């Protein structure tokens, strides 16, 4: 067994001790997020994650860098997506990476002092520099993974908000209402199109009232997409009635050359509900 393998074995044997020492030395007065939790399950999971980190990292002394990160990135991605860590400030997580890096440098010194034999100073220096490099790369990879997770969560939240802001409300059997409120930009208009088609299909809607009285302003692209929604619904056999169209919205549609010929239009929702499709709201 060469010195690299012996160092790896030494670190692996002491992995659980390193985890306990790391957790016990947390700055509890200033800890936040996952590091401040008093939930026993969260603490147990945190320690298990730290121990698993050691199981991976000790292999840096026996594997080439490329092979090492191919396996280690599994752990990095898992922690970046972990609910407790996503609720923890990134600066606090980076601080703990740096504290564990210091642990490794100290562990190398401990190994050297307990090693029965001579170890060249150049090798010791190489080990320390290698650990610093690996931790620096790990921190960068974690930041990248955490930012990607944050973007995905933000996108999911935005999609949920958009979906909730454009509900297809069933008012009787196969008849429904789509009340649109607030500003509609291109991104939201696209979401409304996709969400409405899906909701109408799931709820087996045959008649849909689209009320625009709560929409203050739309641009040309949004007006086009609203008409595209109506055309698509017509192709699916779903008849539409528009109500509450503001003058500026109507003017934008006319400037685009969009036709109102095949669209039922009422000045307000009350008139729409009393139109040729006789509906009694119970």
UniProtKB/TrEMBL annotation:
InterPro entries: Bact_StressResp_Reg (IPR051932), STAS_dom (IPR002645), STAS_dom_sf (IPR036513)
Domain of life: Bacteria
Keyword match GTP-binding: no
Gene3D superfamilies, per the entry: STAS domain
Phosphoprotein in keyword set: yes
Residues forming coiled coils: none
Domain STAS stretches: 165-276
Pfam families in the cross-refs: STAS
Keywords linked to the UniProt accession: Phosphoprotein
The protein, known as: RsbT co-antagonist RsbRB
């Amino acid at each position: 067994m060469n010195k690299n393998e012996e160092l790896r074995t030494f670190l692996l044997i002491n992995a659980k001790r390193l985890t306990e020492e790391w957790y016990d030395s947390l700055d509890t007065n200033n800890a936040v997020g996952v590091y401040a939790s008093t939930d026993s399950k969260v603490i147990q999971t945190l320690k298990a994650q730290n121990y698993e980190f050691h199981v991976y990292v000790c292999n840096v002394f026996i594997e080439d860098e490329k092979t090492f990160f191919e396996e280690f990135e599994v752990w990095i991605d898992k922690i970046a997506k972990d609910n407790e860590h996503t609720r923890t400030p990134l600066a606090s997580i980076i601080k703990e990476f740096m504290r564990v890096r210091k642990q490794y440098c100290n562990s190398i010194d401990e190994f050297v002092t307990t090693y029965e034999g001579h170890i060249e100073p150049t090798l010791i220096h190489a080990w320390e520099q290698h650990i610093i490099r690996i931790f620096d790369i790990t921190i960068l990879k974690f930041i990248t993974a955490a930012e990607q997770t944050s973007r995905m969560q933000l996108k999911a939240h935005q999609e949920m908000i958009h979906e909730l802001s454009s509900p297809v409300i069933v008012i009787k059997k196969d008849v429904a209402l789509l009340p649109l409120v607030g500003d509609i930009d291109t991104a939201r208009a696209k979401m409304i199109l996709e969400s409405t088609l899906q909701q109408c299909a799931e709820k087996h809607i045959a008649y849909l009232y689209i009320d625009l009285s709560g929409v203050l302003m739309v641009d040309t692209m949004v007006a086009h997409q609203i008409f595209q929604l109506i055309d698509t619904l017509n192709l699916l056999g779903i008849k539409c009635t528009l109500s509450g169209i503001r003058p500026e919205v109507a003017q934008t549609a006319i400037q685009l050359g969009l036709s109102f010929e095949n669209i039922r239009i009422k000045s307000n929702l009350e008139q729409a509900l009393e139109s040729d499709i006789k509906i009694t709201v119970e």
